Amino acid sequence: MNDQLTILQTAAVALLKQLIATPSFSKEEDKTALLLETFFTGRQIPVQRIGNNVIVRNKHYDPGKPTLLLNSHHDTVKPNPQYTKDPFSPDVEDGKLFGLGSNDAGGCLVSLAATFLYFYEHKGPYNVIFAATAEEEISGTGGIELIINDLPPIAAAIVGEPTQMQMAVAERGLMVIDCVSHGKAGHAARNEGENALYKALKDIEWFRSYQFDRVSDLLGPSRMNVTVIETENKAHNVVPAVCRFVVDTRINECYTFEEVLEIIRTHVDSEVLPRSTRLRSTSIALDHPLVKAGIKLGRTYYGSPTTSDKALMPFPSLKMGPGDSARSHTADEYIYVKEIEDGIALYIQLINEVQNG
User: Fold this and answer.
1) Average pLDDT of the chain?
2) How far apart, in whole angstroms, are the C-alpha atoms of residue 299 and residue 292?
3) Is the pLDDT of residue 348 over 80?
């Protein structure tokens, strides 16, 4: 296995360098999708392409066996304006591979691609499918959600996100809420009207101070943060009739989004309109074979504060991958080459443990 592992590790790093050098902002991933497609077809592996999503199945796929999905995304955010390096130049310095998307989630993506290659010709008790998906960074509908119905029944999934190869067994749900406060326009000099901004501030103070009762052992309390506030005024001397603000809510598994909306509407006067209720909190049981295998291999588990495509999967999924989420979306993003190499080896061990369990 050592020679094969070395070959896979080398191929993974080379692929990541190509991906870094190819811009792949969300909804603009066609070029990296082609790179991934070529990576597999060049190895005589049939590829299914749906939009900018690339799917491959193990050579001896058997619909009678349970299927394990390996998934990560190949889209990136726009470069942080504080970059000092070229975000599209995959340079290696002191063991660090720099470049946009190197850590989030390129290192995970190529590590899972290499892991799929390792199992491609195996005839184990599980099928193995790899899906490189789009639009994860914007929670778009053209990514994992687009291909779910084209996949066979999935027993479980490994979602590649930078977790330092520890196991994120749960993650918060994300619900973005648009709030609108209404008042009455008037001339500021004559103190006329009803200031919608002041009314909004009262509601914003409630969002700042409210504490949810139910606290998760893995995720802690649910949280709400007001992140945007604006009026339509262009002039300084007009009392605003309308004030809009945005609330970012991160909800643990103890609450449904419907419960949270009911609590909010009971306490604020502003209109409350959720943009989406798709990205719900998820968790995988601690006695699931994937988690038990990880524990046996010395991995720890935790609840993740961030949201991923795991939220859109209607089957058990474990978020786990090389890299560190603290580096995601930062200037001069990087991942250690050794993190990728070790990640591939550990993914293979994890799947072997599950298949032999």
Assistant:
1) 95
2) 9
3) yes
Tens-place pLDDT, residues 114-145: 999 999 999 999 999 999 999 999 989 999 99
Q: How far apart are the C-alpha atoms of 155 and 276, rounded to whole Å? A: 27
Distance CA 132, CA 150 (A): 14
305 token code pair:
């504060």
Q: Given CA atoms 337, 83, 85, 109 in this order, what sign does their dihedral have?
A: positive
What is the distance between the alpha carbons of residues 259 and 238, in angstroms, rounded to a whole number?
37
SS3 (DSSP) at 253:
coil
Please check the confidence at residue 103 and state whether its pLDDT lies above 70: yes
| Residue 107 contacts residue 339 (beta carbons within 8 Å) | yes
H or E element at residue 258: helix 257-267
Q: Helix, strand, coil % (nearest 5) of the chain?
A: 35, 25, 40
Distance of CA 272 to the CA centre of its chain: 26
Residue with tokens 């560190």: 324
What secondary structure does DSSP assign to 1-44, as a single string? -HHHHHHHHHHHHHHHHHHHTS--BTT--HHHHHHHHHHHHTTT
pLDDT digits (tens, 9 = 90+) for 187-213: 878 878 899 999 999 999 999 999 999
Confidence of residue 2 (pLDDT cuts 50, 70, 90): confident
Return the amino acid letter for 185: A
User: What's the start-to-end Cα distance of the chain, in Å?
Assistant: 20
Picking from 14, 51, 19, the residue whose alpha carbon sits closest to that of residue 35 is: 19
Residue with tokens 């340079």: 91
Side by side, which strands form the sheet with 223-231? 223-231, 242-251, 173-182, 271-274
pLDDT digits (tens, 9 = 90+) for 159-170: 999 999 999 999
Residue 19 to residues 27, 161, 208, 328, 346, Cα–Cα distance (Å) = 15, 16, 41, 16, 23
Strand-strand pairing, 301-304 and 167-171? parallel
